[in-house]
Specification:
about 675 residues; alpha/beta; TIM Barrel; Rossmann fold; FAD/NAD(P)-binding domain; 3 domains; 8-stranded parallel beta barrel; 5-stranded parallel beta sheet; 27 strands; about 30% helix
Length: about 675
């Protein structure tokens, strides 16, 4: 019996039948090359189609030369895109999925840096993120905008797409017309909701005429801008009714937030519960007679099934879940949902990489963003005994020539070691995995013990599950010695022993285990594992700008400590902006009354305090403390590797992850994934 009967029923979207209710919704990839579709686009969407998804909606296609908000964007208004469209649609159709093209003009939510043209907007109101004042579009500009949508729709039709989705939500000129906070017009395009929706209706009518009756047409609307004075759910319901009333729209997709002040709500991190925006499709579904798509951090098929079963939506968008595991749909259909590589919602490599203008990746899936290069052969260049540097530049897997299985010893069962064991076992090698601690997962397992970070442990759980299916179990509580590993006579050794905390120079004489020292200095790992329990006045000194400091500060504040977070950076948790965690942390932080001091460098300690200097002004500060948590990079622990090298081991010796240099988990997973294919 099918475990998810509602999820795997077919559904009709206008003239198009979709094989199930799972949607790979539109999202940025940064795969475009010179404004055109790339081979990576084709491979990326094909992979998810082969994985069983019902409907794919591509990333947005720009409709006008004035709309170029980020560098690697598909310029759908150019006729040369049609050949790329054909390549994508043929690949997806051969795999059994339907595919729609999302078309959009970002309006004022963009930049003129690439186009060298003024931005378009309903009113000359600056967007708070991009900080450019747009040109208030005229009647002739609006005609030009509509013509651009028609042109891209015609290109999509020629390119073999099954349908069109008009982006009318978070980052679009249509939403800017719909919203009273960005549309201050007094002509026929402003004022009442009917007037503000006039551009949307005009685009629906023009696009339907361009594509004819044999393609589906949908719109994506924002259910709540999450901004004071902006669109709320009542407005979204009215917009949906207006669209439905045209009798030209075949489905409505939904979203929440806008791509500026409330961006954190669009691609929510693990700090926000799954299904958090289900109230939007549930409300819209009550007033329209066409299918409605839900989105909002759907992690597993049971969440999707429940939303459809309970009548809250007709289809469910699963984006990050299918980036992490392209076979999400297939595994769910075959009753193998326990094998799904569950998304962490960490946002580090999907959302975060977009923020630094890099192609999309995934902390869990080393292939994500590199599907087109998967079968490329890596030239190992002979000796593999000089650590990860010998092959990291390739950043892609190779296909191993069949031969006798090798005996592989992996030392360390953090994300790097676990992935190395997986990649080695996948290649048919015999793997022995050793971990000195009672618990696997290394620094990531510790990090998952912090508030709102528990889902990090899913990465380790997923890796252990995959290893278990391969018959590999870690040997925990086993500190392997040099003699012991040599006596095993392995063909290859992978050293993934991570890093160890290293306190900064200014903390000398104030170690936590020194009973007479005050304040006592510790580190996040020792706090999270419970060996140190700071009390009273605590200074968290943040050298890293990521979750380590903010997580510990939150944990200690919840325990009743008086916490001050100090950083030499311009803001606390600088990199949390990339993963869309900063806003939610600041909201919680305000409730916890955590004080923040920025632009301050630690220069020493006294018997009662930490000494700081504000590097922008030279001002000196003294903060009294009972404890200081020093958040800085640790030291790579690679003693075993160096001893093996000293003992003459060179061939088949690998050093990976934090044992090379302390970094984030994605580097560890990628390096571990490369190992198996490179073992001779």
């Amino acid at each position: 019996m099918q475990r998810f009967p509602n999820l795997f029923r077919t559904i009709t979207l206008g003239p198009i039948t979709v094989r199930n209710r799972i949607v790979f919704s539109a999202h940025l990839t940064n795969f475009a090359q010179n404004g055109n579709v790339s081979d990576q686009h084709v491979a990326y969407y094909k992979e998810r189609a082969l994985g069983g998804v019902g409907l794919i909606i591509t990333e947005e296609h720009s409709t006008h030369e004035s709309d170029w908000p980020y560098e690697k964007m598909i310029h759908g208004f150019r006729p040369e895109v049609v050949n790329g469209y054909i390549a994508i649609t043929e690949a997806v159709h051969q795999a059994g999925s339907r595919i729609f093209a999302q078309i959009n003009h970002n309006g004022a939510q963009g930049t003129s840096n690439y186009s060298r043209l003024p931005l378009f907007g309903p009113s000359p109101k600056m967007d708070p993120m991009f900080r450019e004042v747009p040109k208030q579009v005229t009647e002739s500009d609006i005609v030009d905008i509509i013509s651009g949508y028609v042109k891209v729709a015609e290109h999509a039709r020629l390119g073999g797409f099954d349908g069109i989705e008009l982006q009318c939500s978070h980052s679009s000129i249509v939403r800017q017309f719909l919203s009273p906070i960005t549309n201050e017009r007094t002509d026929r395009w402003g004022g009442s909701i009917e007037n503000r929706a006039r551009l949307m209706v005009a685009l629906i009518e023009a696009t339907r005429q361009a594509i004819g009756p044999n393609m589906a047409l949908g719109i994506r609307i924002c259910g709540d801008e999450m901004v004071e004075g902006g669109l709320e759910i009542e407005d979204a319901v009215k917009v949906a009714q207006i669209a439905n009333g045209t009798s030209m729209v075949d489905y409505i997709n939904t979203s929440i937030g806008i791509a500026t002040q409330s961006l954190y709500s669009i691609e929510a991190s693990m700090a926000i519960p799954p299904g958090y925006s289900l109230f939007i499709p549930a409300a819209i579904r009550q007033v329209v007679d066409i299918p409605v798509v839900a989105v909002g951090r759907f992690k597993d098929p049971s969440h999707c099934e429940r939303a459809i079963r309970d009548g809250q939506a007709d289809l469910v968008g699963v984006v990050r879940g299918q980036i992490a595991d392209p076979n999400f749909a297939k595994k769910a259909k075959e009753g193998l949902e326990h094998e799904i590589r569950t998304c962490l919602s960490c946002n580090q490599e999907c959302v975060g990489r977009m923020g630094v203008n890099r192609w999309l990746g995934c902390i869990e899936n080393p292939d994500a963003g590199k599907e087109a290069a998967r079968n490329s052969t890596v030239n190992s260049g002979g000796s593999l005994g000089i650590g990860i540097g010998a092959f990291a530049a390739s950043n892609q897997r190779s296909v191993r020539v069949a031969g006798a299985p090798r005996r592989v010893a992996v030392v360390g069962a953090g994300p790097a070691g676990l992935q190395a064991a997986i990649s080695s076992a996948r290649q048919g090698h015999l793997v022995a995995l050793f971990e000195a601690n009672a618990e696997v997962g290394g620094a990531l397992t510790l990090a998952s013990k912090a508030p709102h970070r528990a889902e990090l442990a899913d990465l380790i759980r997923n890796q252990l599950s995959e290893l278990g299916r391969m018959g590999v179990s870690p040997n925990t509580n086993h500190t392997i010695t040099l003699d012991e590993i040599l006596n095993l006579t392995p063909d290859a050794i992978v050293v993934a022993t991570g890093s160890v905390p290293e306190l900064p120079w200014w903390s000398v004489g104030h170690l936590a285990d020194n009973e007479i020292s005050t304040p006592k200095v510790t580190n996040p790992a020792t706090v999270l594992n419970g060996l140190d329990r700071p009390t009273g006045r605590v200074v968290v000194y943040d050298d890293l700008g990521f979750h380590q400091a903010t997580s510990v500060a939150e944990l200690l504040a919840e325990r009743g400590c008086q916490v001050v977070v100090v950083t030499p950076h311009l803001s606390v948790g600088t990199d949390l902006g990339l993963t869309l965690d900063l806003e939610t942390w600041q909201l919680r932080n305000s409730r916890n009354s955590v004080r923040q001091e920025v632009e301050c460098v630690a220069v020493g300690m006294t018997e009662t305090s930490i000494l700081l200097q504000r590097h922008t002004t030279g001002e000196t500060l003294t903060i009294e403390a009972d404890w200081v948590v020093a958040v800085n990079h640790g030291r790579s622990e690679n003693t075993l590797y160096r001893n093996l090298r000293h003992a003459g081991w060179s061939e088949g010796l690998f050093l990976i992850g934090d044992a090379v240099a302390p970094r984030r988990a994605h580097s560890a997973v990628i390096e571990g994934d490369l190992v198996g294919a490179l073992i001779p």
